[in-house]
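Q: Predict the assembly, please.
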Amino acid sequence: MNRKLNRILLLIAIFLYIPLGLLQVKINYRRTLENLESRLLLMPGQIAGSLVLSGFKGIAADLLWLNIEDYWHKGQHYKMLPLFDAVSWLQPEYITVWAVGGWHMAYNIFSNVGHEADDLEKQLDSLTGKLSDIEKKKILPVIHIAEEAKTIRENLKGYYTKGLTEKEQPGMIAKLTGYEKKLEEYGDVNKELVEIVKKLVEIPYEQILWYERGISFLKKGVSYNSEKYDLYFELGWTYYHKGQDYPNAVKYLEKAVKFPHPAYVDNVLAHAYELNGQVDKALEQWEKQLKEGIFTDIAKRAIRCIKKEGAFTPKKRRELGLSN
Amino acid sequence: MKKAWVIALNTFQESLRKKTFYILLVVALVVIGASRFFSFLAAEDEIKMIKDVSFSTIEFFGALIAIFTALAAVSGEIETRTIYPLLSKPITRSNFIIGKLIGQSLIILLNVILMSIFFIILLFIKKSPPNVETLKTILLILIELILIGSITLTVATFATDAFNLIFSFFLYIVGHLISYGKSLLERVENMVLKGLGEMLYTVVPNYENFNIRDKIVVGVNVSWQYVGQTVLYGIIYIAIAVLIGIYFFNKREV
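A: Predicted assembly structure:
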């Protein structure tokens, strides 16, 4: 091949970079449009970091997920938190990480925080048992705060929690902050006892924060996966089941049913309507399910109960003094 | 073209005789098969991990096969001196390069097909048959591997094997990172630096364009328009690599 032709080949090669550059602009635009842009996560000293560098973000996310599984089985919930952030950063469309992360925060860590209270209660009982009547009288407001804090903690336990709804929370936090301030005044009277009560007051405060953290994590997940029912449902369910916050539960469950979803989502929405006081909508929802042949036995029973007795959900029936 | 095809078939058969190809293929299949060990996870997570491991294995081992095949394609012929009788025949140097490219592409294709079949069988065993998105991912990996091979082949026309090997791996990493450089470039104020950066951004192959697997495994759908544009990007880049390869091979004293 002569030199001239060879140079022409090189010129053609260089010239081809022009359409290539233009095509890259189009590809970048489509990557943004179709949410295909990937994110970089550098973790010096960790294997995941080097994998990410080579374009194996999926594998890096999987390794981190395996770590999460490991910490979960060892009960080391706090260690999982930065990993949840890392996996959700690498693969924000990985729904499981948002759902499980939110669940761990709002349920498991929430419950773990509460477990400390049992030991503290025992220590408090032993200390108050040793006090003379005069000493007890001096510290009576502190003991009263400890009892109040116990009631709040009891309300946060079990199936029917109290104090987690958007309406109740500000009052609850103000109450707990007030207790903390009041306890400062008694620090000199009996330091050891006051410190224990302080910790007991901090527990429900911390529980509320973990519940809120779980909710925020799920909301963040929703912002990345707004075209699927999954995280709307998880969020709605957490509000419904953990927070007993029915207005918010209805808000997110209504969004969940707008996308293709399994039948149980309709079922939960009907329950949430009823507990939110929207009995007409609950009936409408049950009738819709009956028409579509979803959970027909339950739907028939729900319609009959609501029409005859005014309640179907166990909580509502309990409130009205009806048998379940 | 007929002459190039003869060289292509010869390259394909030569590569099939090499043990490296089988060793890499067997290791890759073992790694894909090992992804079944994630059965302790929830079904959904297990499928995701099988897909992640399999796609990454197809790409990583595919890249190794592409690089080693391309390395052997030119330097192997020179070392064994088989290139001299070949070039003394009525075969142009461009025929030789194009033939080598087609031959190594066939090997890459065979390797991707074998690994994909194994991966798809695994998906069927797990009752999660592949969808069209899985096939789009494999298609883009295939084009990326052919591109990697063609660049290695081009560098082989003027550089030593050691340099080529290091350069190909370095380019593989940089090619995956280059997309992150774009956002950094937007913040550079010095016009000269920005211009140089933009040039580098266009010249270095953007391998991240072909990476849709991280999204596919979590259920994101990718349009055919994106796949089409990326395939076209790959084809243009392969054409550039081949033209540069022919240019340097024509200048080389063999």
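The mean pLDDT of chain A is 87. Chain A touches chain B at residues 1, 6-7, 9-10, 12-13, 16-17, 19-21, 23-24, 26-28, 30-31, 34-38, 40, 53-59, 61-62, 65, 69, 90-91, 93-96, 228 (CB under 8 Å).
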